[in-house]
Amino acid sequence: MLSKATLTATIVGFIFLFFSGWIFYESLATDFFSQHYVNMPSGISGEMNFIILGIMVESSLLSLIYGNWAKGNYNLQSGFKFGALLGLFVGLGINMVMLGTMELLDIQCTLVDAVWNLVYFGVAGCLNGWVFQKLG
User: Fold this and answer.
1) Other beta carbons less than 10 A from residue 28's beta carbon
2) Integer Cα distance of 122 and 136 in angstroms
3) What are the pLDDT digits (tens) for 6-41?
4) Per DSSP, what are the bridge partners of residue 98?
5) CA angle, 13 as apex, 9 and 15 as ends, to 5°?
6) For 66, which DSSP code?
7) Which of 15, 33, 77, 85 is at a distance of 20 to 30 A from 69, taking alpha carbons?
8) 96: Cα separation from own chain's centroid
């Protein structure tokens, strides 16, 4: 369960997820998201410890589940498929529930975030496929 490939993929995935998320949400899409807040409290600041912990959980679960899901067929394509499915679950599934319950963002922003999550987790899945192919 906790193999060299799983541990390495977790670390590689964490680095990618942390920095690409930071670049996307803090630099590239800041203005877009701020224009689509509906019920988002103003002046809210992120708690970095929880962000790091959450990304570590995402990365480790992505690696653990991918190791079993791919059934030894480790490559970039299977990694992207798995990551994109997870991104669809997180980006569209959870964000739609959040839209229906808390309505922090509008529908346009929710859909943009869903597409971002599909790509974001898809690339992280590719990295998992690559690591598992080399070490798996």
Assistant:
1) 12
2) 19
3) 999 999 999 999 999 999 999 999 999 989 888 777
4) none
5) 125
6) H
7) 15
8) 16
Which phi-psi region, left, alpha or beta, contains residue 117 (left: φ > 0; alpha: ψ -120 to 50)?
A: alpha
Contact 123, 20 (CB under 8 A): yes
Which residue, 26, 66, 60, is CA-closest to 45? 26
Which amino acid, one-letter code, is at 124? A
pLDDT tens, residue by residue, 76-104:
999 999 999 999 999 999 999 999 999 88
Please tell me the distance from the alpha carbon of residue 20 to that of residue 112, in angstroms, as a whole number: 16
What is the SS3 assignment for 86? helix
């509008």: which residue's tokens? 106
Instruction: Give CA–CA dist 60/7, Å, rounded.
Output: 8
Query: Which residue's structure tokens are 């690591």?
Result: 131
- Three-class SS state of 37: strand
The length of the chain is 136
**Block residue for tokens 């962000």:** 51
